Every structure is written in structure tokens, then in C-alpha cells.
Amino acid sequence: MKIEVAKYAGFCFGVKRAVQLAFETARDSRNPVYTLGPIIHNPEVVAELERRGVKAVADPRGIRAGTVIIRSHGVHPDVIAALQKRGLRIIDATCPFVTKAQRAAAELRDEGRQVIIVGEPHHPEVVALKGYAGPDSVIFNDQPVPIKPRIGVLSQTTVSEDDFVTALLAFGKRATDIHIFNTICNATQIRQRETMELAKRSDVMIVVGGRNSANTSRLAELCKKVGKPTRSVETERELRAAWFKGACKVGVTAGASTPAATVRRVVKRIRELTNTNAGDRERRRSFDRLPNH
């Protein structure tokens, strides 16, 4: 049986940068270190950071002293202002693509437009974007939303191109003046296209990543759209031999918050469950290591 791992599986640039900053801060700081929510949507990374003294907190109001790391999804600007007012040290690990989307939201707001954000209403990135987009902004997620004649449109960085276009078609005719920013991350687009191509030539797809990771969930959705059996796992411990019965080729992809070490363990476990030797025609690829700090 052949196992093929997607070339772009695992950490993207923004996530890698955020994790690196978190580990470096844990190494260098003598004071308490916190992240506002999990630094990324991956329980293994969050657990490792906690072992090194970095605590994820949901409510920043309880932080009295120390360093606060802004996670890759970004936060509402009011949160930043409150942290600064209390004199806390802030490490901004917001993904540069998310920062670009935040600036676009503020620009559209300053143009006097109603800002439409295409994305998941409760996702932390979208909550932060809404803070930059202004109080009359709305979030579009397959449900009708009130549209004004003059609007600006952008999206959560991990939205698929198809979903963004579908959203534009859903409300585009209702506005007379539209300014559109395509804020979908390039890495997201590449990862999604590659995943779909891999699913087409595979018998079974394994998608590795945190269950609360939006981009990982979208990868699984795309595999299912292709019509291939798809299983989502956080770790190799969830894999089952029955999933691979009769398969000649297994495709493996992973969300942007999935460490390379996790992908390696998943591939190793698939070999064990299917009696596939490492010498088979598996695509060779290099994995980045989880930072050692």
C-alpha cells in the first residue's frame, strides 16, 4: 500500500512564527507568561507550552502581571488597549495574513462602508476582525444578513475560495457600491487545492489536526466533497486498521496548526496497522521539528 503525505501538510508560516515566539518567550521570561486562548488550535502544542510555564487563559482580566502573548488568530483591539493600560508586556504573535485582514477591515470601516466578514461567527479570528470592522459590521456564514447599499467585503483567512465566491453571489446584487478585499491566506488556498488533488488519487484520506481547528475541518470537508472516505484524527492513537481495508493508497494531509512530529507519528502508525514498509513508494518529504527551547 502506498502512503502519500501532502507536501504542504502541517505548520504554515503564521503558526510556525507564533509557536516559535511562544517557546522563545517561555525560555527567556522570568515572569508569568500567558496566551489569550490557546496559541494555536492544537492541544499537543498547548500542553507542551504549559509544561514550560505558558498558561492559556480565556479571560485577560485575571492577568495582573507578566507577559501576554497574542495568539496567531489576533484579538479584538479593545483587548489590546486594556492590556496596555495595565502595563503588561505584550508579544504580538498574530499571523501576518490576519494582521493584513485586520487592516483591510479598518480601511473599509474608515471609508464609511458596512463591513461584511465571511467566516465563522464564533471563531477567534472573526471576533477580532469584527472589532476592527466597526459596530455595524456583520458576519456572513450561509445565513441571510442585513445588507446596506455601500459595503466592504473580506473574509476569515481560512475560508475556501468557493465559499467566498458563494458569499459574494449571495448578497452582491443587493449592494450598489462594493469594495472587496480577498483576505484568504495564500497558504490556505495552496493547501486546500493540494488536498483535493491528493484526495482524487487516494482511496482513503486521513486529515490530521485539532478538532477545534477551522482550517483542518475545511480540509476534511473538501476530501468528502471529492467523494473519498475521510477520517479526521488529532493523534495517531485514534487510527483504526479497519479504515484501510482494501485501500491501495492512503493520502495524509494536516491542518496549519498540526506539528510535523504529529504527522510523522500518524504515518508511522498507518504503516504498522497496514504492514506497510517504510521502503514502499511513499512520497519523500522533509518535516520541520517542533521548536526545542
Q: Identify low-pLDDT runs.
A: 280-293
Query: Residue share in helices?
Result: 25-40%
Given the C-alpha coordinates, what overall shape results?
flat
CATH architectural name of the largest domain: 3-Layer(aba) Sandwich
What is the string of SSEs from the N terminus onward? EHEHEEHEHEHEEHEHEHEEH
Tell me the domain tally: 3
User: In CATH's first tier, which class of the largest domain applies?
Assistant: Alpha Beta
The profile of the biggest β sheet is: 4 strands, parallel
Strand order of the largest sheet: 1-12-10-11
Class per helix and strand makeup:
alpha/beta
Tally of strands? 12
What is the oligomeric state here?
Answer: single chain
Describe this structure in words.
With 293 residues, this protein is of the alpha/beta class. The chain folds into three domains: 2-11 and 187-274, Cobalt-precorrin-4 Transmethylase, domain 1; 13-95, Rossmann fold (3-Layer(aba) Sandwich), CATH 3.40.50; 97-184, 3-Layer(aba) Sandwich (Cobalt-precorrin-4 Transmethylase, domain 1), CATH 3.40.1010. The protein has nine helices and twelve strands. It has helices spanning 13-28, 43-51, 77-85, 96-110, 124-133, 161-171, 186-200, 214-226, 260-274; strands at 2-5, 33-36, 54-57, 67-70, 89-92, 114-118, 138-140, 150-155, 177-180, 204-208, 230-233, 249-254. The strands form three sheets. The protein has a four-stranded parallel beta sheet, with helices on both faces. Helix 4 (96-110) packs parallel to helix 5 (124-133). The protein is flat, with a radius of gyration of 20 Å.
